[in-house]
Amino acid sequence: MTDQDGVYALRYAYRTASVRGEHFYGHDDRATRPWPIDYFVWAICRGDDVTLFDAGFSRAEAARRGRRPYLGTPAELLGRLGFRAEQVSTVVLSHLHYDHTGTLADFPAATVVLQRAEYDFWRSPLAARGGYRHLLNAADLAELERRERRGLLRLVDGDWTLDPAVTGHLVGGHTAGLQVLRVATTPPVVLAADASHFYDNIDCDHPYAVVHELAGMYAAFDRVRALAGEHGVVVPGHDPAVKQRHPALPGQDGLIHPISYF
Ligand SMILES: [Zn+2]
């Protein structure tokens, strides 16, 4: 263990040209208000080992989709923390939307952990339908299939344990097999990823606009709260306010935000 052992939010991209109506379920009179969004991955650092939660999108994907200023690949941001990509032993994926899967190839030796329900859904015929197609990067799915053939894909069902400090939990709602991570730091942290894109989702009980199953999304809010407990910290997946609630490391403004330490 070292002083820097802990959980970090790494902000790799952002988008300012978006409105609230893109992000919240159902129409309301605030739908046209500007609503910027940040893109994060999260690093759990212990000694010389890193567990990465999600893999962001690539610089090329940012250019292809446009309007997404790119701050650095997850591997580049880990470099700012003093880690090399080879030190990432495990990449846990919350789900398979393009903004969570795009730089897996930067971590060729890592074991990838994913819920089986998520993997199965995106390999099913439904994934080609109009409401889903743009959310998956087919090249990223192909990369996962390559990992599976190399024995580097661990498919899990429901709750699972990485090690005594890190547990994964299937919540669904936003996607078929969305999972969150709980990390036993002091205080404990729940990395909610897209179980709650913004603080407003979970705090106001207001679902996100992209819904796989609405009741499941509410159940996910409840599960995240229960996993955090009274004193835990919930970290939403895309909220620009993470930067204010968890100030950056010196010299790393807007990029490297420590959440808690072991
Ligand atoms: Zn996302």
UniProtKB/TrEMBL annotation:
GO terms (molecular function) for this protein are: hydrolase activity; metal ion binding
User: Which cofactors are named for this entry?
Assistant: Zn(2+)
Q: State the source organism's domain of life.
A: Bacteria
Q: Which family does it belong to?
A: Belongs to the metallo-beta-lactamase superfamily.
Metallo-beta-lactamase domain: which residues? 38-238
SMART domains tied to this protein: Lactamase_B
One of its Pfam families is Lactamase_B
**Keyword Repeat among UniProt keywords:** no
Database matches in InterPro entries: MBL_superfamily_lactonases, Metallo-B-lactamas, RibonucZ/Hydroxyglut_hydro
Q: What is this protein called?
A: Metallo-beta-lactamase domain-containing protein
Origin species: Saccharomonospora piscinae
Alphabetically ordered keywords of this record? Hydrolase, Metal-binding, Zinc
Q: Which Gene3D superfamilies match?
A: Ribonuclease Z/Hydroxyacylglutathione hydrolase-like
